[in-house]
Design goal:
- By secondary structure, the protein is an alpha+beta fold.
- Helix content is 31%, strand content 25%.
- The strands form four sheets. Strands 4-3-5-6-7-8-9-10 form an eight-stranded mixed sheet, sandwiched between helices.
- Helix 5 crosses helix 8 (316-327).
- Bound molecules: 2,5-anhydro-1,6-di-O-phosphono-D-mannitol and magnesium ion.
- 2,5-anhydro-1,6-di-O-phosphono-D-mannitol binds at residues 61, 112, 115-117, 208, 241-243, 259, 269.
Length: 328
Protein backbone atom coordinates (compact mmCIF):
# COMPACT_ATOMS: atom_id res chain seq x y z
CA UNK A 1 0.00 0.00 0.00
CA UNK A 2 1.13 3.56 -0.51
CA UNK A 3 1.36 6.59 1.76
CA UNK A 4 -0.12 9.91 0.68
CA UNK A 5 1.23 13.24 1.92
CA UNK A 6 -1.76 13.62 4.26
CA UNK A 7 -1.21 10.13 5.74
CA UNK A 8 2.49 10.90 6.18
CA UNK A 9 1.66 14.11 8.05
CA UNK A 10 -0.71 12.23 10.39
CA UNK A 11 2.02 9.61 11.01
CA UNK A 12 4.53 12.38 11.74
CA UNK A 13 2.09 13.84 14.25
CA UNK A 14 2.07 10.51 16.12
CA UNK A 15 5.84 10.15 15.88
CA UNK A 16 6.53 13.75 16.92
CA UNK A 17 3.57 14.87 19.03
CA UNK A 18 5.10 18.32 19.62
CA UNK A 19 5.07 19.37 15.97
CA UNK A 20 2.57 22.18 15.44
CA UNK A 21 -0.64 21.29 13.63
CA UNK A 22 -0.82 24.77 12.03
CA UNK A 23 2.53 24.11 10.36
CA UNK A 24 1.19 20.91 8.83
CA UNK A 25 -1.94 22.73 7.67
CA UNK A 26 0.34 25.35 6.14
CA UNK A 27 2.30 22.66 4.28
CA UNK A 28 -0.97 21.44 2.81
CA UNK A 29 -1.10 24.89 1.15
CA UNK A 30 2.03 23.90 -0.80
CA UNK A 31 0.26 20.71 -1.88
CA UNK A 32 -2.81 22.55 -3.15
CA UNK A 33 -0.88 25.33 -4.90
CA UNK A 34 1.60 22.96 -6.53
CA UNK A 35 -1.20 20.75 -7.90
CA UNK A 36 -2.72 23.82 -9.56
CA UNK A 37 0.67 25.05 -10.83
CA UNK A 38 1.73 21.67 -12.15
CA UNK A 39 -1.50 21.31 -14.12
CA UNK A 40 -0.72 24.64 -15.86
CA UNK A 41 2.94 23.67 -16.38
CA UNK A 42 1.85 20.42 -18.06
CA UNK A 43 -0.40 22.37 -20.46
CA UNK A 44 2.09 25.15 -21.06
CA UNK A 45 2.66 24.28 -24.71
CA UNK A 46 -1.05 23.89 -25.43
CA UNK A 47 -2.68 26.99 -24.09
CA UNK A 48 -1.92 30.60 -24.62
CA UNK A 49 0.02 30.91 -21.41
CA UNK A 50 3.59 31.00 -22.70
CA UNK A 51 5.64 34.10 -23.35
CA UNK A 52 6.55 37.22 -21.47
CA UNK A 53 3.87 39.38 -19.89
CA UNK A 54 6.15 42.36 -20.46
CA UNK A 55 6.25 43.18 -16.80
CA UNK A 56 9.55 43.50 -15.02
CA UNK A 57 9.99 41.86 -11.59
CA UNK A 58 11.92 43.57 -8.74
CA UNK A 59 15.23 42.19 -10.06
CA UNK A 60 14.70 43.79 -13.48
CA UNK A 61 13.91 40.48 -15.20
CA UNK A 62 11.01 39.98 -17.63
CA UNK A 63 8.26 37.93 -15.98
CA UNK A 64 6.81 34.94 -17.78
CA UNK A 65 3.06 34.29 -17.68
CA UNK A 66 3.49 31.06 -15.76
CA UNK A 67 5.56 32.95 -13.17
CA UNK A 68 2.61 35.26 -12.65
CA UNK A 69 0.12 32.39 -12.41
CA UNK A 70 2.33 30.46 -9.98
CA UNK A 71 2.84 33.55 -7.83
CA UNK A 72 -0.85 34.39 -7.64
CA UNK A 73 -1.78 30.78 -6.89
CA UNK A 74 0.70 30.50 -4.02
CA UNK A 75 -0.39 33.84 -2.57
CA UNK A 76 -4.06 32.76 -2.71
CA UNK A 77 -3.45 29.31 -1.21
CA UNK A 78 -1.32 30.61 1.67
CA UNK A 79 -3.36 33.76 2.13
CA UNK A 80 -6.38 31.58 3.02
CA UNK A 81 -4.57 30.01 5.95
CA UNK A 82 -5.13 31.83 9.25
CA UNK A 83 -1.72 30.77 10.54
CA UNK A 84 0.06 32.87 7.89
CA UNK A 85 0.91 36.46 8.79
CA UNK A 86 3.38 37.43 6.07
CA UNK A 87 3.94 36.24 2.50
CA UNK A 88 7.04 37.21 0.48
CA UNK A 89 7.85 36.21 -3.08
CA UNK A 90 10.60 36.66 -5.65
CA UNK A 91 7.96 38.30 -7.83
CA UNK A 92 6.86 40.96 -5.33
CA UNK A 93 9.00 43.89 -4.31
CA UNK A 94 7.77 43.93 -0.71
CA UNK A 95 6.38 41.31 1.70
CA UNK A 96 2.58 41.18 1.97
CA UNK A 97 0.85 41.28 5.37
CA UNK A 98 -2.13 38.91 5.61
CA UNK A 99 -4.46 38.49 8.58
CA UNK A 100 -3.19 41.65 10.27
CA UNK A 101 -3.67 41.67 14.03
CA UNK A 102 -4.71 38.02 14.14
CA UNK A 103 -3.06 36.21 17.08
CA UNK A 104 -3.25 33.01 15.03
CA UNK A 105 -0.96 34.43 12.34
CA UNK A 106 2.31 32.88 13.51
CA UNK A 107 4.21 32.08 10.32
CA UNK A 108 5.86 33.80 7.38
CA UNK A 109 6.28 32.01 4.07
CA UNK A 110 8.82 33.06 1.47
CA UNK A 111 8.97 31.52 -2.01
CA UNK A 112 10.26 31.60 -5.55
CA UNK A 113 7.10 30.61 -7.45
CA UNK A 114 8.95 29.30 -10.52
CA UNK A 115 12.69 28.86 -10.35
CA UNK A 116 14.49 28.37 -13.66
CA UNK A 117 11.96 30.45 -15.58
CA UNK A 118 14.22 30.69 -18.65
CA UNK A 119 13.45 26.97 -19.09
CA UNK A 120 9.64 27.35 -19.32
CA UNK A 121 9.47 27.93 -23.07
CA UNK A 122 11.75 24.98 -23.83
CA UNK A 123 9.94 22.33 -21.74
CA UNK A 124 12.81 21.84 -19.31
CA UNK A 125 12.38 21.23 -15.57
CA UNK A 126 11.38 24.18 -13.37
CA UNK A 127 10.32 24.30 -9.73
CA UNK A 128 8.89 26.15 -6.74
CA UNK A 129 11.08 26.71 -3.67
CA UNK A 130 9.64 27.71 -0.27
CA UNK A 131 10.79 28.55 3.22
CA UNK A 132 8.67 28.85 6.37
CA UNK A 133 9.69 30.98 9.35
CA UNK A 134 8.08 31.60 12.71
CA UNK A 135 6.89 35.09 13.63
CA UNK A 136 9.69 36.77 15.61
CA UNK A 137 8.82 37.72 19.16
CA UNK A 138 7.20 41.14 19.63
CA UNK A 139 6.70 41.60 15.90
CA UNK A 140 3.31 42.58 14.55
CA UNK A 141 2.15 42.23 10.94
CA UNK A 142 3.02 45.84 10.10
CA UNK A 143 6.68 44.92 10.58
CA UNK A 144 6.65 42.50 7.64
CA UNK A 145 10.35 42.72 6.76
CA UNK A 146 11.43 41.61 10.22
CA UNK A 147 9.33 38.47 9.85
CA UNK A 148 11.37 37.34 6.85
CA UNK A 149 14.86 38.76 7.52
CA UNK A 150 15.88 35.80 9.67
CA UNK A 151 18.88 33.50 9.14
CA UNK A 152 18.01 30.22 7.36
CA UNK A 153 18.85 28.36 10.58
CA UNK A 154 15.51 29.67 11.91
CA UNK A 155 13.45 27.97 9.19
CA UNK A 156 10.83 25.65 10.68
CA UNK A 157 10.13 23.95 7.35
CA UNK A 158 11.35 24.28 3.79
CA UNK A 159 11.33 22.46 0.51
CA UNK A 160 10.60 22.56 -3.17
CA UNK A 161 8.35 21.16 -5.87
CA UNK A 162 9.92 20.09 -9.13
CA UNK A 163 7.93 20.09 -12.38
CA UNK A 164 10.05 17.64 -14.37
CA UNK A 165 9.50 14.23 -15.97
CA UNK A 166 7.25 13.84 -12.92
CA UNK A 167 6.11 16.34 -10.28
CA UNK A 168 8.05 15.81 -7.07
CA UNK A 169 7.67 17.49 -3.69
CA UNK A 170 10.63 17.40 -1.30
CA UNK A 171 10.25 18.87 2.18
CA UNK A 172 11.63 18.84 5.69
CA UNK A 173 10.35 20.25 8.96
CA UNK A 174 13.42 19.14 10.88
CA UNK A 175 12.27 15.51 10.66
CA UNK A 176 14.61 14.35 7.89
CA UNK A 177 13.96 14.88 4.18
CA UNK A 178 11.03 13.21 2.46
CA UNK A 179 10.08 13.13 -1.22
CA UNK A 180 6.62 12.61 -2.76
CA UNK A 181 5.78 11.96 -6.39
CA UNK A 182 2.50 13.26 -7.78
CA UNK A 183 0.28 10.55 -9.25
CA UNK A 184 -1.93 12.35 -11.79
CA UNK A 185 -4.29 9.37 -12.06
CA UNK A 186 -5.47 9.80 -8.45
CA UNK A 187 -4.47 13.44 -7.95
CA UNK A 188 -2.32 12.72 -4.88
CA UNK A 189 1.28 12.99 -3.80
CA UNK A 190 2.64 9.55 -2.87
CA UNK A 191 5.63 9.00 -0.57
CA UNK A 192 8.37 7.84 -2.94
CA UNK A 193 11.61 8.87 -1.19
CA UNK A 194 11.55 8.40 2.58
CA UNK A 195 14.31 9.87 4.74
CA UNK A 196 16.60 10.90 1.90
CA UNK A 197 20.33 10.95 2.64
CA UNK A 198 22.69 12.67 0.24
CA UNK A 199 25.46 10.31 -0.94
CA UNK A 200 28.77 11.25 0.73
CA UNK A 201 30.39 11.39 -2.69
CA UNK A 202 28.85 11.50 -6.14
CA UNK A 203 30.16 11.79 -9.69
CA UNK A 204 28.56 15.02 -10.97
CA UNK A 205 29.65 18.62 -10.68
CA UNK A 206 27.28 21.37 -11.76
CA UNK A 207 28.37 24.91 -12.65
CA UNK A 208 27.85 27.18 -15.67
CA UNK A 209 31.30 26.64 -17.19
CA UNK A 210 30.71 29.33 -19.82
CA UNK A 211 31.72 31.77 -17.06
CA UNK A 212 34.98 29.96 -16.25
CA UNK A 213 37.14 32.89 -17.38
CA UNK A 214 35.30 35.32 -15.11
CA UNK A 215 34.86 33.20 -11.98
CA UNK A 216 37.06 34.09 -8.98
CA UNK A 217 40.20 31.92 -9.03
CA UNK A 218 39.19 29.78 -6.01
CA UNK A 219 36.29 28.29 -7.99
CA UNK A 220 38.40 27.78 -11.13
CA UNK A 221 41.06 25.98 -9.06
CA UNK A 222 38.44 23.74 -7.42
CA UNK A 223 36.88 22.76 -10.76
CA UNK A 224 40.38 22.00 -12.08
CA UNK A 225 40.96 19.63 -9.14
CA UNK A 226 37.59 17.94 -9.70
CA UNK A 227 38.32 17.46 -13.42
CA UNK A 228 41.80 16.09 -12.76
CA UNK A 229 40.35 13.35 -10.56
CA UNK A 230 41.93 14.78 -7.40
CA UNK A 231 38.77 13.97 -5.42
CA UNK A 232 39.52 10.29 -6.04
CA UNK A 233 36.96 9.84 -8.83
CA UNK A 234 36.37 11.13 -12.34
CA UNK A 235 33.34 13.38 -12.60
CA UNK A 236 30.79 14.25 -15.28
CA UNK A 237 29.29 17.71 -15.61
CA UNK A 238 25.57 18.57 -15.61
CA UNK A 239 23.99 22.03 -15.68
CA UNK A 240 20.25 22.36 -16.26
CA UNK A 241 19.96 26.09 -15.53
CA UNK A 242 17.19 25.50 -12.99
CA UNK A 243 18.85 25.54 -9.58
CA UNK A 244 16.11 23.44 -8.06
CA UNK A 245 16.55 20.70 -10.70
CA UNK A 246 20.34 20.76 -10.42
CA UNK A 247 19.96 20.52 -6.64
CA UNK A 248 17.46 17.64 -6.80
CA UNK A 249 19.93 15.57 -8.81
CA UNK A 250 22.67 16.49 -6.32
CA UNK A 251 20.43 15.46 -3.40
CA UNK A 252 19.67 12.04 -4.87
CA UNK A 253 22.88 11.24 -6.76
CA UNK A 254 25.43 13.30 -4.83
CA UNK A 255 28.04 15.71 -6.18
CA UNK A 256 28.17 19.49 -6.02
CA UNK A 257 26.29 22.52 -7.42
CA UNK A 258 28.06 25.88 -7.58
CA UNK A 259 26.86 29.34 -8.57
CA UNK A 260 29.70 31.77 -7.74
CA UNK A 261 29.86 35.55 -7.76
CA UNK A 262 30.54 37.00 -11.26
CA UNK A 263 31.17 40.54 -12.60
CA UNK A 264 27.48 40.77 -13.58
CA UNK A 265 26.34 39.39 -10.24
CA UNK A 266 29.04 40.45 -7.75
CA UNK A 267 27.05 38.94 -4.84
CA UNK A 268 26.10 35.80 -6.75
CA UNK A 269 22.94 35.38 -8.81
CA UNK A 270 20.78 33.24 -6.55
CA UNK A 271 18.52 34.73 -3.93
CA UNK A 272 19.29 33.91 -0.29
CA UNK A 273 15.85 33.86 1.32
CA UNK A 274 13.80 31.84 -1.14
CA UNK A 275 16.34 29.96 -3.27
CA UNK A 276 19.52 29.24 -1.27
CA UNK A 277 17.99 28.93 2.24
CA UNK A 278 15.37 26.26 1.49
CA UNK A 279 17.77 24.00 -0.40
CA UNK A 280 20.54 24.57 2.18
CA UNK A 281 18.09 23.45 4.89
CA UNK A 282 17.21 20.33 2.88
CA UNK A 283 20.92 19.64 2.19
CA UNK A 284 21.90 19.84 5.87
CA UNK A 285 18.94 17.67 6.91
CA UNK A 286 20.11 15.10 4.34
CA UNK A 287 23.74 15.10 5.56
CA UNK A 288 25.12 17.57 3.01
CA UNK A 289 26.47 21.11 3.36
CA UNK A 290 25.93 24.58 1.84
CA UNK A 291 28.16 27.65 1.97
CA UNK A 292 28.67 31.04 0.34
CA UNK A 293 32.42 30.14 0.53
CA UNK A 294 32.81 32.21 3.72
CA UNK A 295 30.14 30.85 6.08
CA UNK A 296 27.32 28.29 6.05
CA UNK A 297 24.35 29.61 4.03
CA UNK A 298 22.03 28.98 6.99
CA UNK A 299 24.08 31.30 9.26
CA UNK A 300 23.89 34.37 7.00
CA UNK A 301 21.93 37.22 8.57
CA UNK A 302 19.87 38.69 5.71
CA UNK A 303 19.50 42.45 5.30
CA UNK A 304 17.26 42.60 2.24
CA UNK A 305 14.34 40.56 0.98
CA UNK A 306 15.85 39.99 -2.47
CA UNK A 307 19.47 39.63 -1.27
CA UNK A 308 21.68 37.47 -3.48
CA UNK A 309 24.39 35.04 -2.44
CA UNK A 310 27.09 32.88 -3.98
CA UNK A 311 26.11 29.24 -3.43
CA UNK A 312 28.16 26.05 -3.12
CA UNK A 313 26.06 23.06 -2.08
CA UNK A 314 26.58 19.33 -2.12
CA UNK A 315 27.67 16.11 -0.47
CA UNK A 316 30.15 15.89 2.40
CA UNK A 317 33.14 14.76 0.39
CA UNK A 318 32.88 17.38 -2.40
CA UNK A 319 32.15 20.14 0.13
CA UNK A 320 35.14 19.24 2.31
CA UNK A 321 37.35 19.25 -0.79
CA UNK A 322 35.96 22.70 -1.66
CA UNK A 323 36.66 24.09 1.83
CA UNK A 324 40.22 22.66 1.71
CA UNK A 325 40.74 24.17 -1.74
CA UNK A 326 39.77 27.69 -0.69
CA UNK A 327 41.97 27.47 2.43
CA UNK A 328 45.07 26.46 0.38
P1 LIG B 1 15.35 32.61 -11.91
O1 LIG B 1 14.90 32.52 -10.48
O2 LIG B 1 15.05 33.94 -12.52
O3 LIG B 1 14.86 31.49 -12.72
O4 LIG B 1 16.98 32.59 -11.88
C1 LIG B 1 17.66 31.62 -11.17
C2 LIG B 1 18.26 30.61 -12.12
C3 LIG B 1 18.68 29.36 -11.41
O5 LIG B 1 17.63 28.46 -11.38
C4 LIG B 1 19.82 28.87 -12.24
O6 LIG B 1 20.73 28.09 -11.51
C5 LIG B 1 20.45 30.15 -12.71
O7 LIG B 1 19.43 31.13 -12.70
C6 LIG B 1 21.02 30.05 -14.09
O8 LIG B 1 21.68 31.23 -14.40
P2 LIG B 1 22.71 31.31 -15.66
O9 LIG B 1 21.88 31.26 -16.88
O10 LIG B 1 23.43 32.61 -15.44
O11 LIG B 1 23.65 30.13 -15.53
MG1 LIG C 1 12.80 32.48 -10.15
Amino acid sequence: MFTTFQQHIVQEQTRRPGSPVELQWLLSGVILASKLIQSQVRRAGLIDILGAVNEINPQGEVQQKLDVYANETLIKCFGLRESVGVIASEENEFPIAVHPNSPEAQYAIVFDPLDGSSNIDVAVTIGTTFSILRRPENCDTSDTLNWVLQPGRQQVAAGYVLYGSSTVLVYSMGNGVHGFTFDPSIGSYILSHENIKMPEQGTYYSINEAYNEIFPSKYVEYIKRVRKGELGKFYSSRFIGSMVADFHRTLLRGGIFIYPETPNYPNGRLRLLYEANPIAYIAEQAGGMATNSVQPILDIQPHELHQRTPLVIGGKSEMEAFMNCIQD
